[in-house]
């Protein structure tokens, strides 16, 4: 298997496991990621961590050799498969992080952008080099990158195919944080531990308000916020959270 799904305490872990080819994504890996996202959605995991095997790469993109000699319809279906797989990760009810410890190019960066967060080590190098192959991104990059870093910078990266290092990626908001260490899973666990102590209701509503709000006007976004924050007040977790504060104790959230 070139992709592994495992569980480690509260964490689900997707490992791209093709280090000899820098974890380049074959179509069967995209299908496996899509299936893994379904399995994670039905699991008790509180967060998803996505890592690449081997010391060199998170993922060097779509498998270029496999992309060749395919019909127009096959290419379209391939793009839709990748988009669907990464979109499932983006829409999971739990937060996710991609730990970029080396190269993240093309489809690899698109997978990382499907995650809620990205963290990178100093050695990370990222880009959407499709233009150098006579292609354009096909797994969500043209849509997610401008939403993350703005139109001008996204166009710069997509149209030049240029590689950015970890510092520039952090400055541009492409990665949340630069982290130190050489064990991607440990780095991912450490980062995600900030997010898993809360109830899923509040955590999901908060994310939904931000993500849905970005797709619409401020006025409509404020209406979404009013509705979701009102909904959050109705949960037992909200009663527990506020009661625990008043009673000066740690809350026990139950996702209800
Ligand atoms: N595909 C296949 N094999 C790859 C690969 C890739 N993307 N990247 C690396 N490899 C393989 C190399 O061929 C090599 O294998 P062997 O020759 O040893 O058998 C092995 O991994 C190690 O790579 P290198 O020897 O090149 O390692 P270096 O350290 O020298 O260089 C590198 C690392 C990451 C700079 C270099 O490997 C590189 O430039 N890789 C390609 C990066 C890239 O261009 N990625 C693809 C971006 S395009 C679609 C539309 C668009 C797309 C997909 C679908 N549809 C409409 C369906 C676009 C997708 C993309 O991701």
Q: What's the pLDDT, averaged over the residues?
A: 97
Q: How much helical structure, as a percent, in the residues?
A: 40-55%
Q: What structural category characterises the helix and strand content?
A: alpha/beta
User: How much of the residues is beta strand, in percent?
Assistant: 15-25%
| End-to-end separation | 37 Å
| Helix and strand run | EEHEEHHEEHEEHHEHEHHHH
Structural Rg: 19 Å
Number of helices: 11
Q: Strand sequence of the main sheet, in spatial order?
A: 1-2-3-5-7-10
Q: Give the overall shape.
A: globular
Ions and ligands: 4-(N,N-dimethylamino)cinnamoyl-COA
Low-confidence stretches: none
Q: What is the makeup of the main sheet?
A: 6 strands, mixed
**Total number of strands:** 10
Summarize, please.
The chain has eleven helices and ten strands. By secondary structure, the chain is an alpha/beta fold.
């Amino acid at each position: 298997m070139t992709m592994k799904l495992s569980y480690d305490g509260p964490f689900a872990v997707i490992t791209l496991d093709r280090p000899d080819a820098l974890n380049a994504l074959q179509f069967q890996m995209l299908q496996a990621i899509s299936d893994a996202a379904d399995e994670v959605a039905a699991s008790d995991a509180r967060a998803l961590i996505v890592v690449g095997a081997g010391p060199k790469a998170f993922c060097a993109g779509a498998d270029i050799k496999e992309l060749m000699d395919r019909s127009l319809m096959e290419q379209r279906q391939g793009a839709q498969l990748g988009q669907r797989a990464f979109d499932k990760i983006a829409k999971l009810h739990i937060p996710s992080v991609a730990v970029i410890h080396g190269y993240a190019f093309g489809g690899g960066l698109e997978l990382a952008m499907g995650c809620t967060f990205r963290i990178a080590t100093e050695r990370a190098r990222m880009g959407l080099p499709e233009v150098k192959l006579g292609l354009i991104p096909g797994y969500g990059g043209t849509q997610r990158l401008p939403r993350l870093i703005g139109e001008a910078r996204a166009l710069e990266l997509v149209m030049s195919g240029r590689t950015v290092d970890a510092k520039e990626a952090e400055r541009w908001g492409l990665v949340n944080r630069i982290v130190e260490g050489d064990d991607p899973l440990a780095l991912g666990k450490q980062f995600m531990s900030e997010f898993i102590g809360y109830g899923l209701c509040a955590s999901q509503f908060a994310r939904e308000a931000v993500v849905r709000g970005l797709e619409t006007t401020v006025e409509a976004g404020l209406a979404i916020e009013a509705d979701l924050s009102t909904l959050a007040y109705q949960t037992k977790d909200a009663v527990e959270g506020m009661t625990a504060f008043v009673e000066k104790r740690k809350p026990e959230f139950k996702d209800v």
